[in-house]
Specification:
Elements (H helix, E strand, L loop, with lengths): L1 H15 L14 H13 L1 H18 L4 H19 L7 H19 L4 H26 L2
Helix pairs in contact: 1-2, 2-3, 2-4, 2-5, 2-6, 3-4, 4-5, 5-6
Length: about 140
C-alpha cells in the first residue's frame, strides 16, 4: 500500500511538470488517468474510487476547469474501472486497453463537446500508446 501512496503523490507532480514536455503538437497524454485506470483494474473498486477522488481533487485545484466536474469525473472513472476490473483477468492487456479507451471516451466527450475527431482521437491514441508501456512498468513495480 505504501507504493500506491508514493505513486499517488508522484503522478500529479509529474502530470503538472514533466508531461508538458512530452507533447505531440497540442496533445499530451493524461498520466493521472492512465494510472487511475491501472490501479482501478488491479486493486478494485475501493482503491479506484479513493484514487479517483484524490486525483480529481488535485486536478480540480490546479486546473482552469470546474473543480467539481473534475472531482466527479475522476471518481466515476476510478469506480467504474474498479468495478469492471473484477470481471477481467487482472493482467489481461486487452482489458486495460478496452477500459482505457472507454474511459477516455467518457472523459473527453463530457469535457470537450466539440472537435471529436480533431481533439479526442489523437489524445486517445497517445494515451493508449503510453499506457501499454506504463501498465507494464507499474505491474512490475507494484507486484
Amino acid at each position: 500500500m505504501s507504493s500506491i501512496f508514493f505513486i499517488a503523490i508522484l503522478i500529479p507532480i509529474l502530470q503538472l511538470t514533466a508531461v508538458n514536455y512530452a507533447m505531440i503538437g497540442p496533445h499530451s497524454f493524461n498520466l493521472i488517468l492512465i494510472v487511475l485506470i491501472f490501479f482501478g483494474l488491479r486493486r478494485g473498486f475501493k482503491t479506484g474510487t479513493a484514487l479517483g477522488l484524490f486525483f480529481g481533487t488535485v486536478n480540480g485545484l490546479f486546473s482552469i476547469g470546474s473543480f467539481w466536474s473534475s472531482l466527479f469525473l475522476y471518481a466515476i472513472i476510478g469506480s467504474v474501472t474498479g468495478y469492471i476490473g473484477q470481471w477481467f483477468y487482472r493482467d489481461d492487456l486487452l482489458a486495460f486497453l478496452i477500459t482505457l479507451l472507454s474511459s477516455l471516451g467518457f472523459m473527453y466527450l463530457v469535457t470537450i463537446p466539440s472537435g471529436f475527431f480533431r481533439l479526442f482521437l489523437p489524445a486517445a491514441a497517445y494515451n493508449t500508446a503510453i499506457s501499454i508501456f506504463l501498465f507494464y512498468f507499474l505491474r512490475e513495480l507494484t507486484v
